[in-house]
Amino acid sequence: MSTAAQALQRALVATLRASGLAVTGIHDGPPADAVCPYVAISDGSTTDWSHKTGRGREHRLSIAIWDDGLSPARLHALMAEAEDVIEAMPRDLEGHRIASLAFLRGRIVRDPDGPWAGRLDYRVRTLEIPPP
To answer: Please, which domain of life does this record's source organism belong to (predicted)?
Structure first.
């Protein structure tokens, strides 16, 4: 994971934890023994987005929200709230700046024997802040 990806991941986790989202936990990666509803942030992927005079990265983020309700109603509400929180997150990161943050897709599925899973996918482009 690049330094930009680490800074973005830390900022995303901190933003979601500070948001008051009604979940039992915000996990940086798949949790071992979480209780629903909870959020798990995937590793995602990072590609080059540099330009002539600076370094940049394009990140693909996937945020999963798990819920064991009887219907997807609570999950829809949690996903909408998480979208608002993510899209309002601070643009300044540790040594990097978010140049753009774009929602790509959302999806809800259910395993017949398990909980509902809601997934939010984002494309985030960051630029390295050069040292003074």
So the answer is: Bacteria
Per-residue three-class SS string for 3-48 = HHHHHHHHHHHHHHHHCCCCCCCEECCCCCCCCCCEEEECCCEEEE
Inter-helix orientation angle 3-18/73-87, to 10°: 120
Specify the CATH number of the domain 3-128: 3.30.2000.30
Pairing type for strands 96-110 and 38-41 reads: unpaired
Report d(CA 15, CA 39) in Å as an integer. Answer: 12
Environment class of residue 14 by beta-carbon count within 10 Å: exposed (0-12), middle (13-18) or buried (19+)? middle
Q: pLDDT (tens digit, 9 = 90+) per residue, 73-131?
A: 999 999 999 999 999 999 999 999 999 999 999 999 998 888 999 999 999 999 999 88
Domain ranges of the chain: 3-128
Q: How far is the C-alpha of 131 from the C-alpha of 113, rounded, in Å?
A: 52
Does the model's pTM come out above 0.85?
Answer: yes
pLDDT band at 2 (very low <50, low <70, confident <90, very high): low
